[in-house]
Every structure is written in structure tokens, then in C-alpha cells.
Amino acid sequence: MNADNGVIRTPLEEDQVGLVVEVFRMLADPTRVRILWALVDRELSVNDLAGEVGKPAPSVSQHLAKLRMARLVRPRRAGTTIYYSLENVHILRLVVDAVHNAEHAGPGVPAHHRGADLRAVPVGDREVAE
């Protein structure tokens, strides 16, 4: 794309490629995508997530364990409740960009261009709505 921007990309190490593949493997499941999308702008407990994605709490808990091992979500304990959030801004951008890209496959103007369901996405030290 920007062949003249001066950025030289070095080849990826095999272990790094393996980690990238694992991230995409985690995104290849509809329930996990729904969980990650629900966590884009907030943290939720397992029970709240179960309600959001329409799956039983034990099933959501198993998905969260996989997402946690892949470093896509992080837990926070408050008393007896564990809340989950996205691990970092890179995961947030990956999820939002994947959803927005999928919206372009459909007919008409994508929702994120119409202003429906805008999600604020941090860019540097500020947030912007995409």
C-alpha cells in the first residue's frame, strides 16, 4: 500500500506467528466473538455476559477461560464476582475493526458509518468514534 512510507517490516519469528494464529483461532468461534464484542466498551461478569450472548453461564465461563489463556481478556475480582474486560487496546481495535469490516460486506451503508452503535475506540491518548 504505502511502499514509499519508509517502513521496513522484518519477517515474523515462528513463535510470534504461532501467537497470531492463536488469536485468529480464538476469533473463529461465534460465541467468543459475541463475548468480545460485548466487552468492547465495558467489563461484565460471567452471568451478565451469559445474558448478553444468550448462552449458559458454564459455557461462557469455558469460552472466557480460553480467551484468558490467549490473553484476549483479563479478569478482575470484586468480592465474590469476577468481571472480565478486553486485555488491551489492540484487542479492542481488532474486534471493532473486524466487526466494522464485516458490516461492509452487507448491502447499503454500514451501521458504523450511519452513527448507529458507535463505539469509542482509543487512539493514542484520546478516544474517537468510528
What's the gist of this structure?
The protein has 130 residues and is of the alpha+beta class. The protein is built from six helices and five strands.
Describe it.
- The chain is of the alpha+beta class.
- It is built from 6 helices and 5 strands, in the order H-H-E-H-H-E-E-H-H-E-E.
- The strands form 2 sheets. A 3-stranded antiparallel beta sheet has the order 1-3-2. A two-stranded antiparallel sheet has the order 4-5.
- Helix 3 packs across helix 4 (57-69).
Shape: globular
Tell me the major beta sheet.
Answer: 3 strands, antiparallel
What do the pLDDT scores average to?
Answer: 86
| Counted beta strands | 5
Give the % helix.
40-55%
Give the helices and strands, then pairings.
Layout: H1 14-26, H2 30-38, E1 44-45, H3 46-53, H4 57-69, E2 73-78, E3 81-86, H5 89-103, H6 111-114, E4 120-123, E5 126-129
Antiparallel strand pairs: 1-3, 2-3, 4-5
Helix pairs in contact: 3-4
